[in-house]
Amino acid sequence: MMSAAASLGMILQWDVDNGLSMIDKFVHSTEDYVKAGSLLAIGIVNSGVKNEFDPALALLSEHVDNQKSATIRMSAILSLGYAYAGTNRRDIADLILPVFEDTAASMEVLSHASLALGLTFTSSCDGEIAQAIMTVLIEKDETTLTSPYARFLYLGLGLLFLGKQGAADLTLEAVKTLPGVAGQSATLTVEICAYAGTGNVLKVQRMIHVCSDHLEENNAHQAIAALGISLIGMGEELGSEMCLRVFDHLLQYGEPVIRRAVPLALGLLSVSNPRIQVMDTLSKLSHDHDADVAQSAILGLGFIGAGSNNARAAGMLRALAQYYYKEANHLFVVRIAQGLLHMGKGTISLSPFHSDKMLMSGVGVGGLLIVLYSCLDLKNLLLSKAHYLLYSLCCSMFPRMLMTLDEDLKPLAVPVRVGQAVDVVGQAGKPKTITGFQTHTTPVLLGSSDRAELATDDYIPVTSLLEGFVILKPNPNAPPPSTKK
Length: 485
Fold this sequence. Notes:
Blueprint: H1 2-11, H2 16-27, H3 32-46, H4 55-60, H5 70-83, H6 90-96, H7 98-101, H8 107-120, H9 127-139, H10 150-160, H11 169-175, H12 180-194, H13 201-211, H14 220-233, H15 237-253, H16 256-269, H17 276-285, H18 291-304, H19 311-323, H20 328-341, E1 348-349, E2 353-354, E3 359-360, H21 362-375, E4 398-399, E5 401-405, E6 415-421, E7 434-441, E8 444-445, E9 450-454, E10 459-461, E11 469-474
Helix pairs in contact: 1-3, 2-3, 3-5, 5-8, 8-10, 8-21, 9-10, 10-12, 10-21, 11-12, 12-14, 13-14, 14-15, 14-16, 15-16, 16-18, 17-18, 18-20, 19-20
């Protein structure tokens, strides 16, 4: 019931005015799960939308310290994280920080508070929030930190330093004092987040070194290291190719805990980019005798095909649905992967990179990491009570179409050439930036390796990159339209 109510938010995403009026009737439900789902839907609808009236804050703030129902409290806290992801707003921190001081708060509530603050203050290096999360980690004993939800405390801390490299050094030293596997997991999480998308070879080497240890027990941190390889290396093409070779070795020689994480790491490495080589590897792993590896591989297929409507991936998933028709958990995961593949009927991407893959969206990476961390323990999280964490993907969703607007922000249909992007760095003159192009009229869908350029001289784009929403202004030097006799 909770997911059903929250799914309304996905259907009405970004439509704040109409969405909130449709969700409102469920907010007053007497059933806790329906109410919790509707609170999540409020955050999902407001995700990535700036609104001067702050409807999400007004509707959710009263539920943050709800002592009667932990489910409602967790939904309200996480929903605030979705709605204000990347905004660095102090009033959100002031609202959520007291949760860490609540001695009665369970590990689930604390982990949700950590995720919400991590999303809201992504890449901010906020010392006060880092201190609050560290205090909780130090106060909890080693047994409590073995909870499947403890990983989200580390992740919330890591998101504060996403992509900030050396700025996380002080926190890294503090985290290393934590005992046992918890300390190793927290250290690796903060480290991989700090170097996300940088392609830092030394850090990739360190992750490979962690994966190379053959540990029979206390090895949960190795799964995080496997994810870290793709998180650090996914920033550029060459790094991605090298990571694929590393994962081949890990699949052959790694321990079971690493084999379960590799399909997810492959999904992160080429998210919304259905590469044939990755797809074939995941297809092979989706029939693995280890149920966890198979489920991770099926989800990985969903991630690499997310929003692409790829026919080959769709065929694989249909075959898997028939193959696993008696296995409830496998079938659930297949349906999720199919939903990801046809996301927004093929108009939405999960890729965190934009501006011709030169810039990385911290909020987008944060949403992906929450879901991938949940997938590291499918049995106790996504296939149990925490299925709603899949909605964290709302932070990573973005339309993958190119829309052109005039100076009054009204839609403008112009011809554009869309083709395979060509790397022209360092080439002299004005080389062609695309190859094998077709001419379309905007709006037009762009694939992960596509690039667009204007096919008319009548307009000049305000930006040098044609993707997302582009404003065009009339070209004063355009040749007059030829008059045919």
